[in-house]
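Class, look over these structure tokens:
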Amino acid sequence: MLTMPQGNVYSDVTAAAAHDALGSNGAWLLLSIDHHGWRARYDLAQALIAGRPDVTTHFGRHVQLMVDLEIQSAIYAATEQVLRLVFACLAHDHGTEAFLDTYVRWTTVAPLIEEAKTVTRGDLDTILEVPATAEEVVGILASHGVEQSFDVAEGLLARVNQLLDELHLNLAEFSQLTQQPAHQEGDNPDLGLRPLRHLDNAFRHGLKAFLPDCLPAARDFGLVGLQDPEVLQSPYLIDLYLSDQEPVFGLIDARPERTGQHLASLRAICIRIKQLSRGFLATRIMGQPGGLLTLQLIDPDELGQDLQ
């Protein structure tokens, strides 16, 4: 038998409120996400980038390929995390384990992305109990001992709604991660196209990665979706095995600039996770709707304060 003491990150009041609302495991999950889980993928990505060797060396180029693909996978993992959180918050029923059961249900990112298309903008208002009027915001601020004019309150409410508009747009944009790309001019029309998710799967499941400088004999490849001569001369090309049907391989230019784009995308998704977990914890669990007014200030490059 192992007895773990109560954690000391959150106050007794916060811990008790979460426990009552979500059950023991549900509370533990939400507080873990709010404290560090929201930024875990981002922190790992930054550590990978900081720890890679000189990317201009032969060995460093190979490490860079793996770093790029690993951070690409982190985007899918963070997307799955934010979507699981959305549906868990929607399913929440105070005093039950509906939040936990929905979050941990067996599924993968592709069906979650498809399911996210059904989430309405009104659903997001429900998750975070967004005030309907500026007058309500004035009252919320006053309950926190802050006196503000109607105009200021109206501006604050507009920013909260803008944030949720952006989140709702993100839910639709996630489909880009699994959708079939379109043929480009110069492509061989007889060759099919595969979603980026297929290349990510080839990396994650068995590291089906083929290094061009290890090709045992010269051979010709049909090109689909990659016609830029500069890209084809990149020292950061890597082939990923897709299947024994054409196209057999997917070619990626995993140069450091692409990795930087990955990191920016990952950062944005991680911020959404924090905004959802913090907003849900503040409004639905703690009954502190004023917490919504700070959601736009979240920055993973700065360590913020946990909700007390």
